Amino acid sequence: MNNPSNLGLPIGTTLDRFIKKKQDEFEYATGELSQLLRDIGLAGKIINREVNKSGLLDIGGAYGSKNVQGEDQQKLDVIANIRFTRALHNGGQVCAIVSEEDEEVIKLNTNGKYVVCMDPLDGSSNIDVNVSIGTIFSVYRRLSPLGAEVTQEDLLQPGTEQVAAGYILYGSSTMLVYTTGHGVNGFTLEPSLGEFVLSHANMTYPTDGKIYSINEGSWNEFDQELRDYITWCKDNNLTARYIGSLVADFHRNMLKGGIYIYPSTTKVPEGKLRLLYECNSLAFIAEQAGGVATDGQQRVLEIQPKAFHQRSPLYIGSKNMVKKASEFVAKESKEMS
Ligand code: AHG
Ligand code: MN
Ligand code: MN
């Protein structure tokens, strides 16, 4: 953990107070983004409450429908989507939401200044086995005038245009980690208070690390370059860790140093993860913390999205580790060498 004095705000500062203090640093801030971030914090607490009841109430298991990606929706996927949407709707700052669980865009307040992209529940396959799961979000400023119809351009902005991104991790404790482009800060939910409090100030990605995270069960579907890189990891005594919840794998690697890979495979040539609400959000956080995120060839944040549920391969983590992986898999670097 880094020295909290970097922010001038002590460990234990509540999320609401932290957001307010940060807003005061910007002369022209109107407070709408701050309100939106507080709404997300509230949504996180509500989803946390539901997640914690998993196993007790009839909220585990499959919902009986498929989402737009053709994946079985779990009951908690659906609950988290509803809860999050409702919190943003009530807050009034958001004009539209792109969600993993909804094929079409959800239109909210026509006067809302912001667009939110979200994966309400990440790591759904881990819900019923009591393993860490998460929520991921990205915030963009809309480009069209207030009051007008939301446009494709509002919704399909490259990751470089994010004004905020973050995730909530429902792990051994519940954490909210976010950035507004001025560093990354982590808040832990204090259950007896029901408040997120600053616990990880000014988070930074170690430049190097020892962890590689990839589903090696897909080895037969990897291309040779990637297999060579994995072999290099083994030869260099790296350690393998793979939870199967992107948020949890990312969070561990950011604290300890590591690389997470969800590659292009013969089964899923575009990768499995979604650009708008998985890759971009975490790429923004990674970069803000001094890490790197590519699709194996180019910077994730510069990819121009063409569809809401577009997928992308993801290589994300410690700078030197992503650089090493790129030496194996990036076409450009091979042509250059
Ligand atoms: P989601 O639950 O939102 O659909 O995301 C699941 C993702 C991600 O969290 C995880 O890293 C990855 O799927 C695991 O996929 P594999 O089982 O193919 O490794
Ligand atoms: Mn996900
Ligand atoms: Mn999901």
Describe the structure.
With 337 residues, this protein is α+β, with helices and mostly antiparallel strands. The protein has two domains: 13-200, 2-Layer Sandwich (Fructose-1,6-Bisphosphatase, Chain A, domain 1), CATH 3.30.540; 211-330, 3-Layer(aba) Sandwich (D-Maltodextrin-Binding Protein, domain 2). 31% of the residues lie in helices and 23% in strands. Strands 4-3-5-6-7-8-9-10 form an eight-stranded mixed beta sheet, with helices on both faces. Strand 9 and strand 10 form a beta hairpin. The longest helix has 21 residues, at 32-52. The chain is globular. The two termini are 38 Å apart. The model is unreliable at 1-6 (pLDDT under 50). It binds 2,5-anhydro-1,6-di-O-phosphono-D-glucitol (AHG) and manganese (II) ion (2 copies).
